[in-house]
Amino acid sequence: MTENELLDELTKELKKEERQPGDVDSYMLSRATGIGRKRCCDILNEKVENGILTKIEIRGARGKLMFVYRKAVK
Fold first, then answer.
1. Where are the beta strands (DSSP E) in the chain?
2. pTM, entire model
């Protein structure tokens, strides 16, 4: 395995999904509702547990890992 092959393999493995229009994160929900961010995380995660939303890990604008939520596909 060459260096480039290894780099390509690792890049594919570590690549995260892109943020999509309509994705919501806890910061957005907190700003829109005035509810604390931690409580918003709890609300969103409850909806994931109930099958209403899907939780997706993405890389934010500055490269930091974060979660966004989308309506679950049925």
1. 53-59, 65-71
2. 0.79
